[in-house]
Amino acid sequence: MSALTPATLETAVGVVEVHRGGRAGAPAIVYLHSAQGEGAGLAFLEILADTHEVVSPAFPGFGGSEGLEAIDDIEDAAFHLLDVLDRLGLDRVDLVGLSLGGWMAAEVATRWPERVRRMVLVNPVGLRVEGAPITEIFGRDLAELASELYADPEHPMAQLMRAMTAFEADPSQIPFDMVRPAVQAQAATAKLGWNPYLHNPKLRGRLPRITAPTVVVHACEDGILPREHADAYVAGIPDARLELLERAAHLAVFEQPDELAGITRSHFA
Q1: How far from the centroid of its chain's Cα atoms is residue 224's Cα?
Q2: How many domains is the chain partitioned into structurally?
Q3: pLDDT at 166 (0 to 100)
Q4: Which domain holds residue 54?
Q5: Beta strands in the chain (DSSP E)
Q6: 138 with 186: CB under 8 angstroms?
Q7: What is the pLDDT of residues 31-62, one digit of tens each?
Q8: Is-contact 259 245, C-beta < 8 A?
Q9: How far apart are CA 150 and CA 114, in angstroms?
Q10: pLDDT per residue over 100-134, tens digit each?
Q11: How many CB atoms lie within 10 A of CB 73?
């Protein structure tokens, strides 16, 4: 697997972190992360980097990326991502987005369809589906949330979330530097998805503008996003198709990196 190299990029809202690596000159895959802010050291991206150039920008408020105060809503987020693509010199890209990142990818593809060659949306939020609400993520007990984010209760990340819950009774036992990234990530996510909750009421009507061949991946054990959301994306995006991922929940890139990389490579071939 090919590791990605960290760098910084000056943008209109401030300096952001970007991890980049893989095969120079190969088609560029841009990965948009979830509310977890994953990217650095992610096995899924390192697998893709064996055959593609991979670019993983950290959204403002995640990691060391600045500029969250300049982002008010999902429209600002889309324009920020366009600015990132411009400054990286990426005219036409393949987009992969997980959850929040899938929503952002769809927003970019509806506004500037000519900039997106192909797209993979993994458990994407962003739509409101009557009768199939997105599970609440804000202010939740971490141990309970872990069972909805991970299909495998023994996954190291799920175990870490349960361990963090044990300290909640006495927060003074946790160094703030340890929890700072999680606090910042939740604040950034809330700014985009607090109200309306993790969706854009206008997005569904704009999905037919997407011209990029699109695969929507639904993890079968996702406890956050019902299957109906994947179906709604597939119905709205012209010629989109659905892929079901077994033995994975909402954060599928952690649980099934090889299977997900296989789906992505096949679609981007």
Answers
A1: 14
A2: 1
A3: 60
A4: 5-268
A5: 5-11, 14-22, 28-32, 53-57, 93-98, 116-122, 214-219, 241-245
A6: yes
A7: 999 999 998 899 999 999 999 999 999 999 99
A8: yes
A9: 35
A10: 999 999 999 999 999 999 999 999 999 999 999 99
A11: 12
